[in-house]
Every structure is written in structure tokens, then in C-alpha cells.
């Protein structure tokens, strides 16, 4: 795939067909429109660079979402490094308000930890669904499954989170 003189045209067609779906997927992950747009562009840039490694064993949309997910993880790592630095500065400059922020952050972290203890597929289904950006039908399509599979997977994941995973 993506070889010869038609490679540019083929990637243009792939972009037209999948850009909105990749953008929605990234919006679910990052919840920031500008960042999602930037990461969508980076996804297609990396897809072009690595197009020779696409072997056709999965849907193009799945391949693109995997690239987008890896880019998002890299963004999270970058943000964590930045937040650690900013948190250190904030602790030094504002000890009173920081306690409240830390308590709130700890509660959020507990929930996030429970979500991230789930198996990879359940975790992705939960994240895609709780943002409201994807229907169960769309989630099923992303995983090459049906709508009922997405509903059951989401329900079971919620049960695991409630039990502390």
C-alpha cells in the first residue's frame, strides 16, 4: 500500500476519509480542540512517514487510531514532566491553596488509577464512552466488533471500577 506515483493521492484520500474520526478519537483522549487538531495533523504526518510499515492486517482507521494513541501517550509524558516542574514551583510559592488542589487531584487520580488498572480494551472503551464523543456503535466499529459488544464491555468495566478493579 502507499507505493508508486499514486501514494500522495492515496494519502489525501485516506486523510479525507479518516481525519474527522481520528480527530474525534483524540478529542476523547485530550478534551482540548486545539490540541486534538494538532495531534491529528501529527498522526497523519507520522502515518505518511511510516506508511511502508502498514501491512493491511487491520483497518486503516484502526492503524491511524493506534498512531494517534501513541502520540497522545507521548503528549501525556511531556505534560507530566511539565506539571511536576510547575507543581514544585507552586508548592514553594503557595502552600495554603495547594492542599486543596492536592486533595482534589488525589481523588481524580484514584478514579484514573482504577480506570488504568483495567485491561487495555476495557480502558479504551471506558474512555471513549465517558466523554460522550463516541456511541456504542462507533466504539464497536473501532474495535471491529458490534454495538452489543461495546455495551457489554463498558458495563463490565464499570463493575470492575466499582469493585476497585
From TrEMBL:
The UniProt record lists the keyword Transcription: yes
Cross-referenced Pfam families: Sigma70_r2
Keywords: DNA-binding, Sigma factor, Transcription, Transcription regulation
One GO molecular-function entry: sigma factor activity
This protein's record includes keyword Cytoplasm: no
GO annotation, biological process: DNA-templated transcription initiation
Limits of the RNA polymerase sigma-70 region domain: 14-81
UniProt record similarity statement: Belongs to the sigma-70 factor family. ECF subfamily.
Protein name: ECF RNA polymerase sigma factor SigM
Organism of this sequence: bioreactor metagenome
Amino acid at each position: 500500500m502507499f507505493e508508486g506515483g499514486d501514494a500522495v493521492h492515496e494519502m489525501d484520500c485516506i486523510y479525507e476519509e479518516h481525519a474527522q474520526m481520528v480527530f474525534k478519537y483524540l478529542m476523547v483522549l485530550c478534551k482540548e480542540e486545539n490540541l486534538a487538531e494538532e495531534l491529528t495533523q501529527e498522526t497523519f504526518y507520522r502515518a505518511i512517514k511510516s506508511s511502508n510499515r502498514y501491512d493491511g492486517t487491520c483497518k486503516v482507521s484502526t492503524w491511524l487510531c493506534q498512531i494517534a494513541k501513541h502520540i497522545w501517550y507521548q503528549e501525556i509524558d511531556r505534560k507530566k514532566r511539565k506539571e511536576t516542574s510547575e507543581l514544585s514551583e507552586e508548592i514553594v510559592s503557595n502552600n495554603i491553596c495547594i492542599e486543596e488542589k492536592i486533595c482534589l487531584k488525589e481523588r481524580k487520580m484514584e478514579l484514573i488509577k482504577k480506570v488504568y488498572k483495567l485491561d487495555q480494551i476495557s480502558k479504551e472503551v471506558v474512555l471513549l464512552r465517558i466523554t460522550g464523543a463516541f456511541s456504542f456503535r462507533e466504539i464497536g466499529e473501532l474495535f471491529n466488533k458490534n454495538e452489543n459488544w461495546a455495551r457489554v464491555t463498558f458495563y463490565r468495566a464499570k463493575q470492575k471500577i466499582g469493585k476497585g478493579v
